[in-house]
Amino acid sequence: MRRVWRGIVRTIFWSFERGSWPYDLMVIAIVLFVLLTPRTLFHDQPQTTAQASSDVQLLSEDSTTQTRTYRLDATMLQPQKRAKEPTPELERETHDILSRTVSDLKERTFQVKRIDPVRAGDGSIAYYDITVQPDFR
Length: 137
Prior knowledge:
Strand content: 15-25%
Distance between the termini: 71 Å
Shape: elongated
Radius of gyration: 26 Å
Number of helices: 4
C-alpha cells in the first residue's frame, strides 16, 4: 500500500525523472487529453457571434439594383481601423464582419459597393451604412 501511495504522490507532484517511462506516460496522457477532449465539455465557445449579429442590421433592400444596405456598429471595428471615409482596408474589414455575422452572406460571394459613415452628435463615427451586392447564383 505504501508503494501505491508513493506512486500517487510522485504523480501529483510530478517528481519523475525526465526520460523515464512514468514521465513519458504522463506526457502522453496529457497530450491525448488536450487533443481528444471536445471543446464543448468546457463550454469554451466564442461568444462574439450572438452579440455581433445584433450590431449589424439590415436597413434596406433594393430589388431593382439587387443591393442591400446594412448598418454596422462602429464599435465592431478596432479603433485604428475606423475611417472617416471609405478606404480599401475599411472595405476589407467590413466585408469580413458581414460575411461572419449576416446569415444570408455567409459562405457566399458579395461585393461592398458603398460605405457611408454615420456620425454621432459629438462628430465621432457611430455607424457605417454599407451597401453590398450579393451574388446569389
